[in-house]
């Protein structure tokens, strides 16, 4: 474990030293797990994650450097931004999985584009339902059913992803390609769920 | 009895504790207000006997410094063209953005070459930044008189959560022009939650519903272990209490246009009178089931009245309330919460005094909202809490806010590539790679926008940036990393580096609808010069008033007191009285001050005598037994 240059204490996060409060220059490659002082893993306890963000934010937030010299103020802003970004990646299961697949040398999003024919046919069906619902003045009950169905599918997709990444596979393992395809399916599901949500909001505003 | 009271007023009790280190300022569309941390809690800074609320109104008279606040508001109907209000609606905006506002406002607006709106008064053009600076200076002055000493120049200023980058920068510039040092720009609803959060820091979700004079925001926060984390925010910078007034004013416009023609409806004095009558009626309808819309335009010989029932008002404004609820739905959707998952609802802003707003918000969230704190003061109080945190006062509380709008760059074909998503916790940053499309290209242009729409032309332009100084290379070889950083104020900065050579590219920023540093600097200088004049003029006016009161009191009591005073004291007082009269005719601050001090000294024997007489009279009216 890296030690603090200022006081020699073991560091929990590269952003700052919890023992002496020194703000540190964070290396560009620091991972979101490192930043939040966690071991890389697909399962992250939400409460622990929030706790780490809060604890470290109290060390680096610009609020606590308002009277500091400009160099430190700027570093506080940068380190906070790094921390916030890391939190956003880790707080979202799909983004967390995406980060792990990439870090483990798995295929990138666009190299595993090909989706099974049956799945694409389903996507076309959802789109049809949404298209028709948009044109109708009254809420379409099929949309509500679709929303429930897609949310359930998303949850089981994420479950399969979690199983495949627990424990984390070897670097470059072929299992990563399977996870990537599943993640791409989640993207399709998210897009459709997003459209259902904006349809719902737009409808409630029209009324 | 005049100067017995005067003497009391002239000797304020010395303040026990050291003054606050920074102010919290709510720079509002309708009213502005300062608060500060004192004795372990945030308090509104009120000068003796006044509310501390400064109406955000500026009047440019025929000579002398502009009037700000209550005095300015009194001129609104008499001299509407030279009385400017709702300035906040113009901050960081171009003329096209504010067409809707201008339609109902009685003054002339133009735009400078970089798209900054300018409002005209008494033949001069003022940017919203300069006008806001005048309001801020007045707020600072009121804060100083409440504190009994010069208020700190360090401050936290609040803005609507939905303000974009340009509007935030404009607010920061206004403060600089006013000679204030902004420690932080804080979002109004978030500030309000800090003011309330002091007493309720257990875990939970809070919705803050903030309907101000000209803006509407809703913010969803999670509170846990002293950390206030904003989950989402939504709003409308074109929706406020003023819009509710306009619906009532419209009743008057329609009725009177039919009777007197369209000419009248366009008359600035009429517009101003309609605005005030409507506001008055709205306020009354908050406590009465029925109120009168009563409008007077003396120079047009118009006195018009009409009864308005609360039901009617609520029908007229139903769509406005609906718009606020739509924003609540969107904010909840972004926070991925249901209305039932909200544990506390906080109401902020004068607009939330309307019973219909309270009722609909309560229905929407299924719980009674908090209204314990004055909705006009809660934002300034929260800003004072944040000011206290920023000056090292406490570390147990932490505020994590978000950027309200997505940040993006225009790509080929006019589409937007999003770089930072809305509701990202700030500070935040993102780095994007760019390259050249022609051989030996040494500069790259790009267009930064803020907003949620797909096409750049539907979003708000923050600026057009030019990266210069790239080394000549074949097309597509340059690897430029551009870093976008949004700081804790929600303000963007951009830096860039060419990675293959390590050359830092220069970035020229042409702000849209904003001032350049040089302009702010120029206004700052002008402001200092004015500030000196303003200060001297105000001090002289105060002294003249004070001397006038003393003269009156002395002349009234001198004859009665003659018998009880020795000859020398009488001569001394008569002499001081004569000199005070001469001094009161002039405007030299030093001479006025000398005359006042001298007069006060010479009047002491008379004051003492009168005090004794009063005491004796009082005693004689009572029996001996009562006196003990």
Task: Describe the model.
The complex is a heterodimer of chains A (about 210) and B (about 625). Chain A has about 210 residues and is mainly alpha-helical. Chain A has 2 domains: about 1-90, Helix Hairpins (Orthogonal Bundle); about 105-205, Monooxygenase, CATH 1.20.1280. Chain A is about 60% helix and about 0% strand. Chain A contains 7 helices and no strands. Chain A has helices spanning about 30-35, 45-60, 70-90, 95-105, 115-135, 140-165, 175-205. Chain A is globular and about 65 Å long. The model of chain A has no long low-confidence stretch (mean pLDDT about 90). With about 625 residues, chain B is an alpha+beta fold. Chain B has 4 domains: about 10-240 and about 320-400, Nucleotidyltransferase, domain 5 (2-Layer Sandwich), CATH 3.30.420.40; about 240-320, Alpha-Beta Complex (Actin, Chain A, domain 4); about 405-515, Substrate Binding Domain Of DNAk, Chain A, domain 1, CATH 2.60.34; about 520-620, Substrate Binding Domain Of Dnak, Chain:A, Domain 2 (Up-down Bundle), CATH 1.20.1270. Chain B contains 17 helices and 27 strands. In chain B, the strands form 7 sheets. In chain B, strands 1, 2, 3, 4, 11 and 12 form a 6-stranded mixed sheet that branches. A 5-stranded mixed sheet of chain B has the order 18-13-14-15-19, with helices on both faces. In chain B, strand 16 (about 290-295) and strand 17 form a beta hairpin. The longest helix of chain B is centred in the C-terminal third of the chain and has 45 residues, at about 515-560. Mean pLDDT of chain B is about 85; it is low at about 1-15 and about 620-628. At the A-B interface, helix 2, helix 3 and helix 7 of A face helix 11, helix 13, strand 19 and strand 22 of B.
Write the layout of secondary structure elements.
The complex is a heterodimer of chains A (207) and B (628).
Chain A: H1 32-35, H2 46-60, H3 70-91, H4 93-103, H5 117-135, H6 141-164, H7 175-206
Helix pairs in contact in A: 2-3, 3-4, 4-7, 5-7, 6-7
Chain B: H1 2-10, E1 23-27, E2 31-38, E3 41-44, E4 54-55, E5 57-59, E6 67-68, H2 70-73, E7 83-85, H3 99-102, E8 109-111, E9 117-121, E10 124-126, H4 128-147, E11 154-159, H5 165-177, E12 181-187, H6 188-197, E13 204-211, E14 216-224, E15 227-236, H7 241-260, H8 262-266, H9 268-285, E16 290-297, E17 302-309, H10 310-316, H11 318-335, E18 344-348, H12 355-365, H13 378-390, E19 398-400, E20 407-410, E21 416-420, E22 428-434, E23 444-450, E24 460-468, E25 480-486, E26 492-498, E27 506-511, H14 517-561, H15 567-585, H16 589-620, H17 624-627
Parallel strand pairs in B: 1-11, 11-12, 13-18, 15-19
Antiparallel strand pairs in B: 1-2, 2-3, 2-4, 5-6, 5-7, 8-9, 9-10, 13-14, 14-15, 16-17, 20-21, 20-23, 22-25, 23-24, 24-27, 25-26
